[in-house]
Amino acid sequence: MESSWLETRWARPLYLAFAFCLALGLLQAIKLYLRRLRLLRDLCPFPAPPTHWFYGHQKLLQDGKIEKLEELVEKYPCAFPYWVGPFQAFFYIYDPDYAKTFLGRTDPKSKYLYKFLIPCLGNGLVNLEGSKWFQHRCLLTPGFNVNILKSYIKVMAHSVNTMLGKWEKICGTQDTVVEVFEHINLMTLDVLMKCAFSQETNCQISSNHDLYVKTTFEASKINFYRLYSFLHHHDIIFKFSPQGHRLQELVKILHQYTEKVIQDRKKLLKDEKKHGNTQKRKDQDYLDIILSAQAENGNSFSDTDLRSEVNTFILAGHDTMAGSISWLLYHLALNPEHQERCRQEIRGILRDRSSITWDQLGEMSYTTMCIKESLRLAPPIPSISRELSKPITFPDGRSLPAGITVVLSIWGLHHNSAIWENPKVFDPLRFSQENSDQRHTHSFLPFSAGPRNCIGQHFAMVKLKVAIALILLHFKVSPDPTRPLVFLHQIVLKPKNGVHLHLKKLP
Ligand code: HEM
Protein backbone atom coordinates (compact mmCIF):
# COMPACT_ATOMS: atom_id res chain seq x y z
CA MET A 1 0.00 0.00 0.00
CA GLU A 2 1.21 3.53 -0.83
CA SER A 3 2.12 5.60 2.29
CA SER A 4 0.24 8.90 2.85
CA TRP A 5 2.18 12.18 2.54
CA LEU A 6 2.15 12.45 6.35
CA GLU A 7 4.39 9.44 6.54
CA THR A 8 6.85 10.58 3.90
CA ARG A 9 10.44 11.43 4.60
CA TRP A 10 9.92 15.19 4.67
CA ALA A 11 6.86 15.13 6.94
CA ARG A 12 9.00 15.14 10.10
CA PRO A 13 10.77 18.46 9.50
CA LEU A 14 7.39 19.91 8.58
CA TYR A 15 5.93 18.77 11.93
CA LEU A 16 8.91 20.27 13.71
CA ALA A 17 8.61 23.58 11.88
CA PHE A 18 4.91 23.70 12.65
CA ALA A 19 5.48 22.92 16.34
CA PHE A 20 8.22 25.55 16.47
CA CYS A 21 5.95 28.23 14.98
CA LEU A 22 3.15 27.25 17.35
CA ALA A 23 5.48 27.49 20.35
CA LEU A 24 6.76 30.84 19.15
CA GLY A 25 3.20 32.14 18.67
CA LEU A 26 2.23 30.87 22.10
CA LEU A 27 5.26 32.49 23.69
CA GLN A 28 4.42 35.79 22.01
CA ALA A 29 0.79 35.53 23.19
CA ILE A 30 1.97 34.87 26.78
CA LYS A 31 4.34 37.84 26.55
CA LEU A 32 1.56 40.10 25.36
CA TYR A 33 -0.82 38.82 28.02
CA LEU A 34 1.76 39.44 30.77
CA ARG A 35 2.37 42.90 29.31
CA ARG A 36 -1.36 43.62 29.57
CA LEU A 37 -1.45 42.40 33.19
CA ARG A 38 1.58 44.54 34.04
CA LEU A 39 0.03 47.62 32.43
CA LEU A 40 -3.29 47.04 34.21
CA ARG A 41 -1.43 46.81 37.54
CA ASP A 42 0.77 49.87 36.89
CA LEU A 43 -2.07 52.08 35.73
CA CYS A 44 -4.64 51.04 38.35
CA PRO A 45 -4.04 54.10 40.65
CA PHE A 46 -5.36 56.24 37.79
CA PRO A 47 -9.06 55.95 36.87
CA ALA A 48 -9.68 55.49 33.12
CA PRO A 49 -12.70 56.03 30.85
CA PRO A 50 -14.70 52.84 30.12
CA THR A 51 -12.77 50.71 27.65
CA HIS A 52 -13.41 48.00 25.02
CA TRP A 53 -11.30 44.88 25.79
CA PHE A 54 -9.84 44.73 22.25
CA TYR A 55 -9.91 48.26 20.82
CA GLY A 56 -9.36 49.97 24.16
CA HIS A 57 -10.07 53.69 23.76
CA GLN A 58 -8.88 53.71 20.16
CA LYS A 59 -12.11 55.15 18.79
CA LEU A 60 -12.26 58.02 21.34
CA LEU A 61 -9.56 60.29 19.88
CA GLN A 62 -8.73 58.66 16.54
CA ASP A 63 -11.07 60.87 14.52
CA GLY A 64 -9.26 63.93 15.89
CA LYS A 65 -12.30 65.39 17.72
CA ILE A 66 -11.07 67.62 20.48
CA GLU A 67 -14.32 67.99 22.45
CA LYS A 68 -13.94 64.39 23.62
CA LEU A 69 -10.51 65.14 25.07
CA GLU A 70 -11.88 68.20 26.88
CA GLU A 71 -14.64 66.08 28.45
CA LEU A 72 -12.00 63.63 29.70
CA VAL A 73 -9.82 66.45 31.12
CA GLU A 74 -12.88 67.72 32.99
CA LYS A 75 -13.79 64.28 34.34
CA TYR A 76 -10.36 62.90 35.31
CA PRO A 77 -8.22 65.42 37.24
CA CYS A 78 -4.48 65.46 36.37
CA ALA A 79 -4.26 62.37 34.16
CA PHE A 80 -5.90 59.29 32.64
CA PRO A 81 -4.66 56.10 30.90
CA TYR A 82 -5.70 55.71 27.28
CA TRP A 83 -5.66 52.18 25.88
CA VAL A 84 -4.71 51.74 22.23
CA GLY A 85 -5.69 48.11 21.64
CA PRO A 86 -5.36 45.37 24.29
CA PHE A 87 -1.60 45.59 24.89
CA GLN A 88 -0.62 49.24 24.66
CA ALA A 89 -1.59 52.27 26.74
CA PHE A 90 -0.62 55.95 26.59
CA PHE A 91 -0.71 57.91 29.83
CA TYR A 92 -2.25 61.38 29.24
CA ILE A 93 -1.29 64.25 31.58
CA TYR A 94 -2.54 67.88 31.60
CA ASP A 95 -1.83 69.20 35.08
CA PRO A 96 0.93 71.86 35.55
CA ASP A 97 2.57 70.03 38.48
CA TYR A 98 2.58 66.80 36.49
CA ALA A 99 3.95 68.68 33.46
CA LYS A 100 6.74 70.23 35.53
CA THR A 101 7.85 66.87 36.91
CA PHE A 102 7.63 65.29 33.45
CA LEU A 103 9.53 68.01 31.56
CA GLY A 104 12.21 68.30 34.24
CA ARG A 105 13.53 64.87 33.22
CA THR A 106 15.37 63.67 30.12
CA ASP A 107 13.24 60.73 29.01
CA PRO A 108 13.62 59.80 25.33
CA LYS A 109 10.90 60.69 22.84
CA SER A 110 8.20 58.06 22.62
CA LYS A 111 8.98 55.44 20.02
CA TYR A 112 5.41 55.43 18.78
CA LEU A 113 4.77 58.94 17.57
CA TYR A 114 8.34 59.95 16.79
CA LYS A 115 9.31 56.66 15.16
CA PHE A 116 6.34 57.11 12.82
CA LEU A 117 7.71 60.51 11.82
CA ILE A 118 11.12 59.17 10.80
CA PRO A 119 10.18 58.36 7.17
CA CYS A 120 9.11 62.01 6.69
CA LEU A 121 11.62 63.85 8.87
CA GLY A 122 14.57 61.48 9.09
CA ASN A 123 16.68 61.58 12.25
CA GLY A 124 16.86 65.34 12.77
CA LEU A 125 16.63 67.46 15.91
CA VAL A 126 13.03 66.41 16.63
CA ASN A 127 13.86 62.69 16.63
CA LEU A 128 17.46 62.50 17.83
CA GLU A 129 18.49 61.47 21.34
CA GLY A 130 21.50 61.67 23.66
CA SER A 131 24.87 63.07 22.63
CA LYS A 132 24.01 63.32 18.94
CA TRP A 133 20.93 65.43 19.73
CA PHE A 134 23.05 67.63 22.02
CA GLN A 135 25.72 68.08 19.34
CA HIS A 136 23.13 69.09 16.71
CA ARG A 137 21.25 71.36 19.12
CA CYS A 138 24.44 73.27 20.06
CA LEU A 139 25.36 73.54 16.42
CA LEU A 140 22.01 74.86 15.26
CA THR A 141 21.08 77.19 18.14
CA PRO A 142 23.24 80.08 16.81
CA GLY A 143 20.98 80.06 13.71
CA PHE A 144 18.32 81.70 15.90
CA ASN A 145 20.35 84.41 17.64
CA VAL A 146 18.95 87.94 17.93
CA ASN A 147 21.01 89.40 15.08
CA ILE A 148 19.86 86.71 12.69
CA LEU A 149 16.23 87.13 13.80
CA LYS A 150 16.50 90.90 13.28
CA SER A 151 17.70 90.36 9.74
CA TYR A 152 14.64 88.18 9.03
CA ILE A 153 12.04 90.89 9.80
CA LYS A 154 12.34 92.52 6.39
CA VAL A 155 12.13 89.18 4.61
CA MET A 156 9.04 88.22 6.61
CA ALA A 157 7.35 91.57 5.89
CA HIS A 158 8.02 91.14 2.18
CA SER A 159 6.35 87.71 2.10
CA VAL A 160 3.35 88.93 4.12
CA ASN A 161 2.95 91.86 1.73
CA THR A 162 2.97 89.47 -1.24
CA MET A 163 0.09 87.60 0.41
CA LEU A 164 -1.76 90.84 1.12
CA GLY A 165 -1.33 91.81 -2.52
CA LYS A 166 -3.08 88.58 -3.49
CA TRP A 167 -5.89 89.31 -1.04
CA GLU A 168 -6.31 92.81 -2.46
CA LYS A 169 -6.68 91.35 -5.93
CA ILE A 170 -9.28 88.83 -4.74
CA CYS A 171 -11.31 91.32 -2.67
CA GLY A 172 -10.94 94.69 -4.39
CA THR A 173 -13.00 97.03 -2.22
CA GLN A 174 -15.68 94.40 -1.52
CA ASP A 175 -16.10 92.41 1.66
CA THR A 176 -15.21 88.90 0.39
CA VAL A 177 -15.01 85.47 2.04
CA VAL A 178 -11.56 83.93 1.52
CA GLU A 179 -10.15 80.57 2.63
CA VAL A 180 -7.06 82.05 4.26
CA PHE A 181 -5.30 78.91 5.53
CA GLU A 182 -4.00 77.94 2.11
CA HIS A 183 -2.62 81.46 1.49
CA ILE A 184 -1.02 81.61 4.94
CA ASN A 185 0.45 78.15 4.47
CA LEU A 186 2.24 79.21 1.26
CA MET A 187 3.32 82.48 2.88
CA THR A 188 4.93 80.65 5.81
CA LEU A 189 6.67 78.25 3.41
CA ASP A 190 7.93 81.28 1.47
CA VAL A 191 9.32 82.88 4.68
CA LEU A 192 10.96 79.67 5.84
CA MET A 193 12.61 78.99 2.49
CA LYS A 194 13.95 82.54 2.35
CA CYS A 195 15.08 82.81 5.99
CA ALA A 196 16.48 79.35 6.56
CA PHE A 197 17.71 78.51 3.08
CA SER A 198 17.95 81.90 1.28
CA GLN A 199 15.78 80.34 -1.46
CA GLU A 200 13.57 82.60 -3.53
CA THR A 201 10.92 80.03 -4.44
CA ASN A 202 8.19 82.45 -5.48
CA CYS A 203 5.89 79.79 -4.06
CA GLN A 204 3.09 82.22 -3.26
CA ILE A 205 2.69 83.13 -6.90
CA SER A 206 3.69 80.03 -8.86
CA SER A 207 1.59 76.94 -8.21
CA ASN A 208 4.57 74.52 -8.32
CA HIS A 209 4.70 74.30 -4.53
CA ASP A 210 1.04 73.41 -3.94
CA LEU A 211 2.00 69.76 -4.28
CA TYR A 212 4.51 70.02 -1.41
CA VAL A 213 1.95 71.70 0.86
CA LYS A 214 -0.75 69.13 0.05
CA THR A 215 1.74 66.32 0.56
CA THR A 216 2.68 67.47 4.08
CA PHE A 217 -1.03 67.68 4.92
CA GLU A 218 -1.76 64.13 3.75
CA ALA A 219 1.40 62.65 5.31
CA SER A 220 0.52 64.17 8.67
CA LYS A 221 -3.00 62.70 8.45
CA ILE A 222 -1.64 59.20 7.80
CA ASN A 223 0.90 59.42 10.65
CA PHE A 224 -1.81 60.48 13.06
CA TYR A 225 -4.13 57.71 11.91
CA ARG A 226 -1.32 55.21 12.50
CA LEU A 227 -0.75 56.46 16.05
CA TYR A 228 -4.20 55.35 17.20
CA SER A 229 -4.44 52.20 15.06
CA PHE A 230 -2.50 49.61 17.04
CA LEU A 231 -2.37 47.03 14.24
CA HIS A 232 -0.50 49.58 12.14
CA HIS A 233 2.09 50.14 14.87
CA HIS A 234 3.88 47.12 13.43
CA ASP A 235 6.22 48.30 10.64
CA ILE A 236 5.61 45.33 8.32
CA ILE A 237 1.80 45.43 8.65
CA PHE A 238 1.86 49.20 8.06
CA LYS A 239 4.24 48.97 5.11
CA PHE A 240 1.90 46.64 3.22
CA SER A 241 -1.29 48.52 4.14
CA PRO A 242 -2.83 51.04 1.68
CA GLN A 243 -1.90 53.88 4.07
CA GLY A 244 1.71 52.67 4.34
CA HIS A 245 1.95 52.41 0.60
CA ARG A 246 0.58 55.92 0.14
CA LEU A 247 2.98 57.30 2.76
CA GLN A 248 5.94 55.91 0.82
CA GLU A 249 4.78 57.84 -2.25
CA LEU A 250 4.35 61.03 -0.21
CA VAL A 251 7.76 60.68 1.43
CA LYS A 252 9.36 60.51 -2.03
CA ILE A 253 7.78 63.85 -2.95
CA LEU A 254 8.90 65.47 0.34
CA HIS A 255 12.46 64.23 -0.05
CA GLN A 256 12.73 65.32 -3.67
CA TYR A 257 11.80 68.81 -2.51
CA THR A 258 14.48 68.99 0.20
CA GLU A 259 17.08 67.35 -2.01
CA LYS A 260 16.58 70.15 -4.51
CA VAL A 261 17.12 72.77 -1.77
CA ILE A 262 20.43 71.14 -0.79
CA GLN A 263 21.67 70.58 -4.32
CA ASP A 264 20.86 74.16 -5.35
CA ARG A 265 22.92 75.51 -2.46
CA LYS A 266 25.84 73.13 -3.07
CA LYS A 267 25.86 74.25 -6.70
CA LEU A 268 25.83 77.90 -5.66
CA LEU A 269 28.76 77.37 -3.27
CA LYS A 270 30.67 75.53 -5.99
CA ASP A 271 30.05 78.37 -8.45
CA GLU A 272 31.14 80.93 -5.85
CA LYS A 273 34.33 78.97 -5.27
CA LYS A 274 34.95 78.71 -8.99
CA HIS A 275 34.70 82.47 -9.35
CA GLY A 276 36.96 83.04 -6.38
CA ASN A 277 34.13 84.42 -4.23
CA THR A 278 34.84 82.35 -1.14
CA GLN A 279 34.08 85.04 1.44
CA LYS A 280 31.61 83.95 4.10
CA ARG A 281 28.06 85.23 3.58
CA LYS A 282 27.36 88.23 5.85
CA ASP A 283 24.25 86.72 7.40
CA GLN A 284 24.79 82.99 7.54
CA ASP A 285 21.48 81.23 7.09
CA TYR A 286 20.47 77.94 8.60
CA LEU A 287 21.70 75.93 5.61
CA ASP A 288 25.10 77.69 5.74
CA ILE A 289 25.37 76.68 9.40
CA ILE A 290 24.61 73.02 8.66
CA LEU A 291 26.90 72.93 5.65
CA SER A 292 29.80 74.46 7.54
CA ALA A 293 29.12 72.00 10.38
CA GLN A 294 29.38 69.23 7.83
CA ALA A 295 32.58 70.68 6.38
CA GLU A 296 34.16 70.90 9.85
CA ASN A 297 32.81 67.62 11.31
CA GLY A 298 32.49 65.52 8.14
CA ASN A 299 32.67 62.27 10.09
CA SER A 300 30.02 63.09 12.66
CA PHE A 301 27.72 65.05 10.36
CA SER A 302 26.87 62.90 7.36
CA ASP A 303 24.86 63.67 4.22
CA THR A 304 21.94 61.83 5.82
CA ASP A 305 22.18 64.10 8.89
CA LEU A 306 22.16 67.08 6.60
CA ARG A 307 19.03 65.91 4.76
CA SER A 308 17.28 65.06 8.03
CA GLU A 309 17.92 68.49 9.53
CA VAL A 310 16.69 70.26 6.39
CA ASN A 311 13.54 68.10 6.31
CA THR A 312 12.96 68.67 10.01
CA PHE A 313 13.23 72.42 9.74
CA ILE A 314 10.96 72.78 6.75
CA LEU A 315 8.29 70.55 8.26
CA ALA A 316 8.57 71.65 11.91
CA GLY A 317 8.79 75.31 10.99
CA HIS A 318 6.15 75.74 8.33
CA ASP A 319 3.13 73.71 9.43
CA THR A 320 3.15 75.09 12.97
CA MET A 321 3.50 78.66 11.74
CA ALA A 322 0.67 78.37 9.21
CA GLY A 323 -1.62 77.11 11.98
CA SER A 324 -0.63 79.67 14.60
CA ILE A 325 -1.15 82.68 12.29
CA SER A 326 -4.46 81.30 10.97
CA TRP A 327 -5.86 80.58 14.45
CA LEU A 328 -4.83 84.03 15.66
CA LEU A 329 -6.61 85.69 12.75
CA TYR A 330 -9.67 83.54 13.37
CA HIS A 331 -9.76 84.41 17.08
CA LEU A 332 -9.43 88.12 16.30
CA ALA A 333 -12.24 87.80 13.74
CA LEU A 334 -14.47 86.27 16.43
CA ASN A 335 -13.52 89.03 18.89
CA PRO A 336 -13.72 92.34 17.00
CA GLU A 337 -13.11 94.47 20.11
CA HIS A 338 -9.69 92.83 20.62
CA GLN A 339 -8.97 93.06 16.89
CA GLU A 340 -9.62 96.80 16.98
CA ARG A 341 -7.46 97.28 20.07
CA CYS A 342 -4.55 95.49 18.38
CA ARG A 343 -5.04 97.60 15.24
CA GLN A 344 -4.96 100.83 17.26
CA GLU A 345 -1.81 99.69 19.05
CA ILE A 346 -0.11 98.73 15.77
CA ARG A 347 -1.14 101.99 14.06
CA GLY A 348 0.30 103.91 17.01
CA ILE A 349 3.64 102.09 16.70
CA LEU A 350 4.09 101.82 12.91
CA ARG A 351 3.03 105.35 12.07
CA ASP A 352 4.30 105.54 8.48
CA ARG A 353 3.39 101.86 7.81
CA SER A 354 6.39 101.38 5.54
CA SER A 355 8.65 99.17 7.66
CA ILE A 356 8.80 97.25 10.93
CA THR A 357 11.79 97.21 13.26
CA TRP A 358 12.86 94.90 16.06
CA ASP A 359 12.20 97.57 18.71
CA GLN A 360 8.69 98.18 17.39
CA LEU A 361 7.88 94.49 17.79
CA GLY A 362 8.85 94.82 21.45
CA GLU A 363 6.29 97.61 21.93
CA MET A 364 3.31 95.51 20.78
CA SER A 365 2.24 94.47 24.26
CA TYR A 366 -1.52 94.06 23.69
CA THR A 367 -0.98 92.25 20.40
CA THR A 368 1.49 89.92 22.16
CA MET A 369 -1.14 89.11 24.78
CA CYS A 370 -3.60 88.25 21.99
CA ILE A 371 -0.98 86.03 20.32
CA LYS A 372 -0.41 84.16 23.59
CA GLU A 373 -4.13 83.78 24.22
CA SER A 374 -4.55 82.33 20.74
CA LEU A 375 -1.64 79.92 21.33
CA ARG A 376 -3.35 78.89 24.56
CA LEU A 377 -6.73 78.27 22.93
CA ALA A 378 -5.28 76.48 19.91
CA PRO A 379 -1.73 75.21 20.55
CA PRO A 380 -0.30 74.28 17.11
CA ILE A 381 1.35 71.15 18.60
CA PRO A 382 -1.47 69.80 20.78
CA SER A 383 0.59 67.10 22.51
CA ILE A 384 4.10 65.73 22.96
CA SER A 385 5.18 62.34 24.30
CA ARG A 386 8.08 60.50 25.93
CA GLU A 387 8.84 56.96 27.04
CA LEU A 388 9.78 56.84 30.72
CA SER A 389 13.39 55.67 31.10
CA LYS A 390 13.04 55.32 34.88
CA PRO A 391 10.13 55.38 37.34
CA ILE A 392 8.42 58.74 37.92
CA THR A 393 6.60 59.96 41.03
CA PHE A 394 4.18 62.84 40.58
CA PRO A 395 3.73 65.52 43.27
CA ASP A 396 0.51 63.87 44.55
CA GLY A 397 2.53 60.71 45.38
CA ARG A 398 1.21 58.50 42.56
CA SER A 399 3.92 56.75 40.51
CA LEU A 400 4.51 55.03 37.20
CA PRO A 401 7.28 52.54 36.33
CA ALA A 402 9.80 52.84 33.47
CA GLY A 403 8.61 51.92 29.99
CA ILE A 404 5.26 53.76 30.06
CA THR A 405 4.52 56.17 27.20
CA VAL A 406 3.48 59.52 28.72
CA VAL A 407 1.64 62.06 26.55
CA LEU A 408 1.62 65.67 27.74
CA SER A 409 -1.60 67.05 26.27
CA ILE A 410 -0.80 70.74 25.74
CA TRP A 411 -4.38 71.20 24.55
CA GLY A 412 -5.70 69.57 27.75
CA LEU A 413 -3.39 71.72 29.91
CA HIS A 414 -4.48 74.92 28.14
CA HIS A 415 -8.18 74.04 28.53
CA ASN A 416 -7.94 72.74 32.08
CA SER A 417 -10.63 74.60 34.04
CA ALA A 418 -8.66 74.00 37.27
CA ILE A 419 -6.11 76.55 35.96
CA TRP A 420 -8.01 78.68 33.45
CA GLU A 421 -11.33 80.24 34.42
CA ASN A 422 -13.80 79.89 31.51
CA PRO A 423 -11.13 78.18 29.40
CA LYS A 424 -13.05 78.54 26.12
CA VAL A 425 -13.28 82.35 26.36
CA PHE A 426 -10.73 84.45 24.43
CA ASP A 427 -9.36 86.78 27.10
CA PRO A 428 -5.91 88.27 26.33
CA LEU A 429 -5.73 89.88 29.79
CA ARG A 430 -4.91 86.48 31.21
CA PHE A 431 -1.41 87.31 29.91
CA SER A 432 -1.02 90.69 31.60
CA GLN A 433 2.17 90.77 33.69
CA GLU A 434 0.17 90.66 36.93
CA ASN A 435 -1.98 87.68 35.93
CA SER A 436 0.96 85.77 34.43
CA ASP A 437 3.01 86.23 37.62
CA GLN A 438 0.30 84.54 39.66
CA ARG A 439 0.04 81.45 37.47
CA HIS A 440 1.94 78.18 37.67
CA THR A 441 5.10 78.29 35.50
CA HIS A 442 3.97 75.17 33.63
CA SER A 443 0.37 76.11 32.84
CA PHE A 444 1.13 77.65 29.42
CA LEU A 445 3.44 75.53 27.24
CA PRO A 446 2.82 76.09 23.52
CA PHE A 447 6.55 75.67 22.85
CA SER A 448 7.05 73.01 25.55
CA ALA A 449 9.75 73.63 28.21
CA GLY A 450 13.07 72.26 29.42
CA PRO A 451 16.04 71.17 27.32
CA ARG A 452 13.87 69.92 24.43
CA ASN A 453 11.77 73.02 24.07
CA CYS A 454 11.15 74.54 20.64
CA ILE A 455 14.35 75.85 19.10
CA GLY A 456 12.29 78.08 16.77
CA GLN A 457 10.10 79.78 19.38
CA HIS A 458 11.60 83.28 19.09
CA PHE A 459 11.52 83.03 15.30
CA ALA A 460 7.83 82.03 15.63
CA MET A 461 6.92 84.96 17.90
CA VAL A 462 8.66 87.46 15.59
CA LYS A 463 6.87 86.08 12.59
CA LEU A 464 3.49 86.06 14.32
CA LYS A 465 3.91 89.73 15.24
CA VAL A 466 5.07 90.81 11.77
CA ALA A 467 2.25 88.89 10.07
CA ILE A 468 -0.57 90.07 12.31
CA ALA A 469 0.64 93.69 12.34
CA LEU A 470 0.66 93.93 8.54
CA ILE A 471 -2.61 92.04 8.08
CA LEU A 472 -4.52 94.19 10.59
CA LEU A 473 -3.16 97.41 9.10
CA HIS A 474 -4.61 96.50 5.72
CA PHE A 475 -7.65 94.30 6.40
CA LYS A 476 -10.57 93.97 8.76
CA VAL A 477 -11.44 90.31 9.39
CA SER A 478 -14.74 88.81 10.50
CA PRO A 479 -15.96 85.20 10.69
CA ASP A 480 -18.16 83.43 8.16
CA PRO A 481 -20.98 82.09 10.40
CA THR A 482 -21.87 79.44 7.80
CA ARG A 483 -18.37 77.90 7.98
CA PRO A 484 -17.02 77.92 11.54
CA LEU A 485 -13.50 76.64 12.07
CA VAL A 486 -13.33 72.95 13.01
CA PHE A 487 -9.99 71.79 14.40
CA LEU A 488 -8.50 68.43 13.58
CA HIS A 489 -6.39 67.19 16.45
CA GLN A 490 -3.39 65.67 14.70
CA ILE A 491 0.36 65.78 15.36
CA VAL A 492 0.11 69.41 14.30
CA LEU A 493 -3.32 71.03 14.73
CA LYS A 494 -5.12 71.38 11.36
CA PRO A 495 -8.34 72.94 10.10
CA LYS A 496 -10.83 70.29 8.97
CA ASN A 497 -12.39 72.41 6.21
CA GLY A 498 -10.07 75.40 5.92
CA VAL A 499 -10.31 78.80 7.64
CA HIS A 500 -12.98 80.95 5.97
CA LEU A 501 -12.98 84.65 6.85
CA HIS A 502 -14.62 87.81 5.53
CA LEU A 503 -11.84 90.17 4.46
CA LYS A 504 -12.50 93.88 4.03
CA LYS A 505 -9.75 96.14 2.71
CA LEU A 506 -9.19 99.15 4.95
CA PRO A 507 -8.80 102.58 3.35
C1 HEM B 1 4.00 78.69 16.65
C2 HEM B 1 4.92 77.92 16.14
C3 HEM B 1 5.56 76.75 16.82
C4 HEM B 1 5.12 75.98 17.86
C5 HEM B 1 3.81 76.11 18.63
C6 HEM B 1 6.14 74.98 18.13
C7 HEM B 1 6.06 74.04 19.14
C8 HEM B 1 7.04 73.12 19.43
C9 HEM B 1 6.98 72.15 20.50
C10 HEM B 1 5.80 71.97 21.45
C11 HEM B 1 8.13 71.42 20.47
C12 HEM B 1 8.51 70.27 21.40
C13 HEM B 1 8.28 68.96 20.67
C14 HEM B 1 8.55 67.73 21.51
O1 HEM B 1 8.98 67.81 22.64
O2 HEM B 1 8.32 66.66 20.99
C15 HEM B 1 8.93 71.93 19.38
C16 HEM B 1 10.18 71.45 19.03
C17 HEM B 1 10.86 71.87 17.93
N1 HEM B 1 10.53 72.92 17.08
FE1 HEM B 1 8.91 74.11 17.22
N2 HEM B 1 7.17 75.16 17.25
C18 HEM B 1 6.88 76.23 16.44
C19 HEM B 1 7.67 76.76 15.44
C20 HEM B 1 8.88 76.27 15.06
C21 HEM B 1 9.72 76.83 14.04
C22 HEM B 1 9.39 78.11 13.27
C23 HEM B 1 10.80 76.01 13.91
C24 HEM B 1 12.00 76.12 13.01
C25 HEM B 1 12.21 77.03 12.15
C26 HEM B 1 10.65 74.94 14.89
C27 HEM B 1 11.53 73.89 15.04
C28 HEM B 1 11.47 72.99 16.09
C29 HEM B 1 12.48 71.95 16.30
C30 HEM B 1 13.68 71.67 15.41
C31 HEM B 1 12.10 71.26 17.46
C32 HEM B 1 12.84 70.10 18.13
C33 HEM B 1 13.77 70.69 19.19
C34 HEM B 1 14.57 69.65 19.96
O3 HEM B 1 14.05 68.57 20.25
O4 HEM B 1 15.70 69.97 20.30
N3 HEM B 1 9.48 75.13 15.57
N4 HEM B 1 8.25 72.96 18.76
TrEMBL record:
It is found in: Endoplasmic reticulum membrane; Membrane. This is Cytochrome P450 family 4 subfamily X member 1. It comes from the Eukaryota. Pfam families: p450 (PF00067). The lineage of its organism: Eukaryota, Metazoa, Chordata, Craniata, Vertebrata. Belongs to the cytochrome P450 family. The keyword Metal-binding applies. One of its GO terms (cellular component) is endoplasmic reticulum membrane. Heme binds at C454. PANTHER family: CYTOCHROME P450 4X1-RELATED, CYTOCHROME P450 FAMILY 4. Its main location: endoplasmic reticulum. It is a single-pass membrane protein. Its cofactor is heme. The keyword Cytoplasm does not apply. One of its GO terms (molecular function) is heme binding. Keywords: Endoplasmic reticulum, Heme, Iron, Membrane, Metal-binding, Monooxygenase, Oxidoreductase, Transmembrane, Transmembrane helix. It comes from Canis lupus dingo.
